[in-house]
Inverse folding.
């Protein structure tokens, strides 16, 4: 084959014409796909890198007809593989300190037949810390360091500094979890300070590296970037608040004081981290990545700006109303809170429509089911919130902890984690130069993850009505989710190792399993 078309894979083109790699690099390929380049067709490359296909074809065909004299030497550098250490840390943390730890907590909740066991608080907060920074944080930072320079057609500013943020984040997570578990020992104050400083520095470095990377780029600003920028501001705020939360608990004068401080800070803190940082980064990346990668086309009405203000506006209204309601007990503030809750399903539905996850993909892939399911879970999680006050009134609870916990799980596992599973399983094979069509369909972890999440969301609410049935069963759901994560995690880890060691090893590798 001497003539290249849109269906020819990047790997085939590079094999036929090594000099074409230089052209791909100019459009942001850099180290993607390893030495041989990704197995994706040229049309896919053009769509994802927002390059003009006809121009690309012309340039490559010219290079083929007249190869440049200078040979192209492929060399992998830190900025090409930095994502691997973040993703591997994320997988290791979710399987151990995150989901396994959470599943053990849940089992204890099941045995004790109560979600409100004071002795479990430190352990639950340590789990939340690991999940927010070690699971969501690691994946977001790894993905951003890898993809952002390529989206902006430039190179990562100071990869060594980005690398430092990895170690700082890791230190912060371990120190923070130890600090929570060792309270009220004196050592926990030192560990809490180490954790706060390390994590805040890591996030500041992360923001600085991406800001300077963006400044190097001559590409025009894209509207989706405002989602990403505001997500990072919420990330920094959530990191500072995490340290404030720890010291507020550590310095409370009594057990009652601890509970009052948790009641005041915990809700806004988790909202900043989940509805601010995580939701906005997913919304931003989804708009840049999902329609192009799965071929979903453009929305008939562009509501990007409206969605941006709805997410941020409802979050600010939520936090202000909640804090003022709790401190002043002025009942009218509950109206503001309810309004914020009503806006949540609105932005969730508009976002799903904007991205087009319910349209038929023209480039279906084994990971699309994760992305679609994530948005279904987002709509469910956000759709629960307007009924939160009503649920509390009907069940005679001032704050219906079970209902809020159920909503949170739908959001953190159903939406955020499902999205991490789907996007990472789509991106990592491309970066490793592996043809995803030859890989495992991932149906088993997908079904298990959904079953575990649905079981937890339903059973947690049911503990208010049929505790003798719901509590003994709920403990299993964490282990169902853990099995799903283990299944997905082994495959992803293995694919990353193939990326590291070269594609020839794939031939002898038992994972990823070829699809039949
Ligand atoms: C994958 C399986 C998971 C299990 C078994 C699990 C388990 C738990 C349990 C038992 C609680 C306490 C529930 C309550 O008090 O209502 C909890 C709370 C929490 N979890 Fe998870 N979780 C999992 C995944 C996640 C993920 C993926 C995230 C973040 C992305 C996350 C973040 C949180 C947060 C923020 C809290 C609230 C902590 C607080 O009260 O401040 N969890 N989890």
């Amino acid at each position: 084959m001497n003539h290249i078309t849109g269906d020819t894979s990047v790997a085939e083109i590079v094999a036929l014409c090594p000099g074409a790699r230089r052209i791909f690099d100019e459009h942001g390929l850099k180290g993607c796909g390893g030495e041989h380049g990704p197995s994706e067709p040229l049309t896919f490359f053009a769509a994802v890198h927002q390059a003009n296909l006809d121009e690309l074809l012309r340039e490559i065909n010219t290079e083929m007809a007249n190869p440049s004299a200078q040979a192209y030497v492929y060399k992998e550098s830190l900025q090409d593989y930095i994502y691997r250490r973040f993703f591997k840390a994320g997988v290791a943390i979710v399987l151990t300190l995150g989901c396994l730890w959470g599943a053990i907590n849940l089992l204890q909740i099941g045995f004790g037949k109560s979600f409100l066991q004071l002795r479990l608080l430190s352990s639950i907060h340590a789990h939340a810390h690991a999940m927010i920074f070690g699971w969501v944080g690691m994946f977001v930072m790894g993905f951003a360091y890898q993809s952002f320079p390529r989206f902006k057609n430039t190179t990562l500013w100071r990869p060594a500094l980005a690398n430092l943020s990895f170690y700082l984040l890791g230190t912060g997570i371990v120190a923070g979890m130890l600090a929570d578990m060792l309270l009220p020992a004196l050592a926990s104050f030192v560990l809490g300070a180490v954790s706060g400083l390390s994590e805040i520095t890591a996030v500041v470095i992360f923001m600085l590296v991406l800001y300077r990377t963006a400044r190097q780029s001559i590409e025009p600003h894209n509207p989706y970037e405002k989602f990403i920028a505001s997500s990072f501001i919420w990330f920094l705020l959530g990191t500072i608040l995490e340290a404030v939360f720890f010291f507020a608990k550590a310095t409370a004068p009594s057990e009652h004081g601890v509970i009052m401080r948790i009641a005041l800070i915990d809700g806004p803190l988790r909202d900043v981290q989940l509805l601010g940082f995580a939701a906005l980064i997913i919304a931003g990346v989804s708009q840049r990545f999902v329609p192009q990668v799965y071929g979903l086309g453009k929305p008939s009405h562009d509501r990007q700006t409206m969605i941006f203000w709805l997410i941020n506006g409802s979050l600010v209204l939520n936090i202000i109303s909640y804090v003022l309601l709790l401190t002043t007990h002025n009942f009218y503030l509950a109206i503001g809170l309810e309004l914020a809750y009503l806006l949540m399903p609105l932005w969730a539905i508009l976002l799903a429509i904007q991205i087009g996850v319910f349209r038929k993909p023209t480039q279906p892939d084994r990971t699309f089911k994760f992305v679609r399911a994530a948005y279904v879970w987002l709509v469910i999680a956000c759709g629960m919130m307007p009924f939160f006050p009503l649920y509390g009134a009907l069940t005679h609870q001032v704050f219906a902890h079970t209902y809020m916990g159920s909503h949170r799980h739908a959001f953190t596992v159903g939406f955020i984690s499902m999205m991490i599973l789907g996007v990472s399983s789509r991106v990592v094979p491309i970066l490793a130069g592996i043809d995803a069509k030859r890989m495992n369909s991932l149906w088993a972890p997908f079904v298990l993850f959904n079953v575990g999440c649905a079981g937890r969301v339903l059973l947690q609410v049911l503990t208010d009505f049929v505790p003798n049935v719901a509590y003994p069963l709920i403990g299993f759901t964490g282990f169902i989710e853990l099995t799903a994560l283990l299944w997905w995690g082994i495959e992803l880890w293995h694919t990353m190792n193939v990326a590291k060691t070269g594609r020839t090893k794939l031939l002898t590798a038992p994972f990823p399993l070829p699809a039949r």
Notes: The pocket of protoporphyrin IX containing FE is lined by residues 99, 102-103, 105-106, 109, 115, 124-125, 127-128, 131-132, 135-136, 266, 270, 405, 408, 412-413, 416-417, 478, 481 (CB under 6 Å).
